Amino acid sequence: MNAVTPKRALGQHFLSDKNIARKIVGTLTFQDYQAVLEIGPGMGILTEFLASMSDCEIRYIEIDRSAIEYLSNKFPGIQHKIIAGDILKTKLTDIFTIPFAIIGNLPYNISSQIFFKILECRHIVREVVCMIQKEVATRIISPPGSREYGILSVLLQAYYHIEHLFNVNPGVFIPPPGVVSSVIRLKRNEHETLGCDESLFFRVVKTAFNQRRKILKNSLKTMINNNISTEDIWHYRPEQLGVRDFIGLTSLIGNSGHMQKISNC
Ligand code: SAM
């Protein structure tokens, strides 16, 4: 069986350390779900540990034909569970309609887009265990007030408890990436809904951070009527607001009223 020649365009940096692979798969909690989707199995270093889990529905989605061929030869028993496709063009609810977890050493070039995709299916994606660039992990985990805090931090923290598990050095990949990687775990929090118009919440967060140097009164101008108060929250910048503030802000905009800043951050 010939190894897959790594393709830079597909973000292929294959993990070569089985102990790290075992550790990553071992961090799945199996709380509240009985199905797992692996994104980008590549040459199957995580797959090897997943495939032996008999009490769980597992699917694998991989875009690279040569990797699929390699996997099918190496693990004939999972051939029918491999979806040949692009995760970004696949509806997650076409794969599973029951609550599930996602695992993967994600292709770094599309990791943010994958997180937005996960957010679209937050009602059934109960857990995510993934390896991503450390820099992206830092952004996702950052608290309000930090330079890294941004759209993905707010949106993911609104729906998931997020933990940084451990870092992985470039030397254990073939070929080594130019950056340190981090393994993180996201667990769906106890709030099924945020208690506000959630599509408006997404728009408010994105619009505010798209002009992050501006105060909210200016960056959200197109979303609010003229009748806003002149103090408090409207004079903050988005990085000063916690998730609850953004929820309050969304309700305020939805009701066309005004609000005070509601939490310290
Ligand atoms: N899981 C393997 C490992 O740990 O060695 C491979 C990880 S590699 C960083 C990322 C994998 O995602 C590659 O196998 C790549 O072909 C696959 N991939 C890249 N873009 C993809 C996409 N849009 N949809 C599905 N898989 C993709």
Descriptive notes:
This protein has 265 residues and is an alpha/beta fold. It has 2 domains: 181 residues, Vaccinia Virus protein VP39 (Rossmann fold), CATH 3.40.50.150; 59 residues, Helicase, Ruva Protein, domain 3. It is built from 10 helices and 9 strands. The strands form 2 sheets. The chain has a 7-stranded mixed beta sheet with strand order 4-3-2-5-6-9-7, sandwiched between helices. Helix 5 runs parallel beside helix 7 and helix 8 crosses helix 10. The N and C termini lie far apart (54 Å). The C terminus is likely disordered. The protein binds S-adenosylmethionine.
CA gyration radius, whole angstroms = 20 Å
Helix fraction bin: 25-40%
Mean pLDDT: 93
The number of helical segments is 10
What is the fold-level CATH name, i.e. the topology of the largest domain?
Answer: Rossmann fold
Largest sheet, if any?
7 strands, mixed
CATH class of the largest domain: Alpha Beta
Number of domains: 2
Bound molecules: S-adenosylmethionine
**Tally of DSSP β-strands:** 9
Give the second-level CATH assignment, the architecture of the largest domain. Answer: 3-Layer(aba) Sandwich
- The run of helices and strands is EHEHEHEHEHEHHEEEHHH
CATH superfamily of the largest domain: Vaccinia Virus protein VP39
Oligomer: single chain
Q: Provide the β-strand percentage band.
A: 15-25%
Protein structure class: alpha/beta
For the terminal residues, how far apart are their CA atoms? 54 Å
Poorly predicted regions are 257-265
